[in-house]
User: Fold this.
Amino acid sequence: MKKIIIIGGGPAGIMAALQAVSNNSDVKIIERNKKPAQKILYTGKGRCNISNYSDINVHINNIVDNARFLYSSLAEFDAYSLFSFFSKLGFELKIERGNRIFPASDRARDVQNILIKELKKNNIAVINDFAEEITVKNKKVAGVKLKKRGYLKADKIILAAGGAAYPLTGSDGNGFASAEKLGHTIITPKPALVPLRTQEKWIKYLKGLKLKNTAVYVYGNSGEKIYEDFGEMEFIKGGISGPIVLSASMYIDFSKSPKYTFSADLKPALTTEQLNKRLIRDFKKYGSKKFKDGLDALLPQKLIPTFVELSKIPYDKKCSQITVLEREKIVHLLKNFNLTITDKFSFSRAIITRGGVSTAEIDPQTMESNLIKNLYFAGEIIDCAALTGGFNLQIAFSTGYKAGRNAKE
Ligand SMILES: Cc1cc2nc3c(=O)[nH]c(=O)nc-3n(C[C@H](O)[C@H](O)[C@H](O)COP(=O)(O)OP(=O)(O)OC[C@H]3O[C@@H](n4cnc5c(N)ncnc54)[C@H](O)[C@@H]3O)c2cc1C
Assistant:
């Protein structure tokens, strides 16, 4: 019997285990948490955006680091294959806007449960322990030292310990240290798809405010546009978050520019001219109302006091007395609601890790290490990263699939 040990019971490790199982293999998962796939519970805001129902080219285009390395894994097990994998288990999925795949129940917990159920059905043991060290003899894996249960011999090991994002879920970067100890190069791990810190102090008054249908433009220090998007953003303590902010964070690199300007167009459906005309109409209609009340139909209530403060127009000035210059200032502020980005939040708030085990040292056809025989990698531990939309879980499932299949050979 070939002893196959998988370190990490996340989506990558579970898929690897399900593929590695056969009459000739004894497959075990080592998972430090009581239950595998704990991170799944947090995904897609508790709904788990499993993947993106689109072809390999769309996936490749949404992968920002080492897309070419993933081509073979995605070609072997793509989003359509993943969809049928779940369907065959009798697990219902649905496809939403942007081809994002979710469980029909909208419950990430159901995804966790079905994966655990599959492990049980296939008699795959999940050992609740912490893998401390992978031992190697003559450049071949030999076994794993566990924290509580001593030593387990192994013919093959799949390291699927995840990245360093959301460390409370169990993936705290220890997998990188294990791989490095074995001689692998680790591309410096950095938090990615992460909220952004802002310099402006007034941000605290906006905490909890969500702005939908906002257009954003991100500029580097010398004014070059590095990103634009349209969608939802949210003000949080000390900064901003929300889908468009997380995506923008992928393009912000403080080694290239010390600061970035995040410019939100709060009225993207109107041109400057149309907005000006609308204000002329509004302020005429509101006449003797205070300026702050004249903004009621234009902005969310929570934003108005801050907006008024930034406009430097007295809050109680009568709408009818707003000057042309002041109106232009208001239009400018609505079209350029600017924030200064000074930092990213840490791993504790990041959706994924950028960096990890260098893809130059992994065979993309098998996921086996080029340095240590019978050692395989799967999932976020590898230096690959994608945008939001289900692409990161697909990477975990596809690389897990490939690693599992090849480890069994
Ligand atoms: C808040 C949040 C929301 C997200 N939403 C989405 C989404 O909707 N769609 C999407 O595509 N992606 C999403 N992601 C990203 C996605 O969850 C990850 O890319 C994916 O979970 C990576 O899978 P993995 O199996 O490689 O690693 P993980 O899921 O991190 O699993 C690794 C496992 O290894 C275990 N482990 C680590 N070290 C050891 C050790 N030494 N011994 C034993 N066990 C160990 C950990 O406990 C963990 O269970 C989200 C991430 C977060 C944090």
Notes: The first helix runs from residue 11 to 20. The CA atoms of residues 12 and 358 lie 17 Å apart. The radius of gyration is 25 Å. Residues 7-13, 30-33, 38-39, 42-44, 48-49, 130-131, 160-162, 165-166, 170-171, 174-175, 351-352, 379-380, 390-393, 396 surround flavin-adenine dinucleotide (CB under 6 Å).
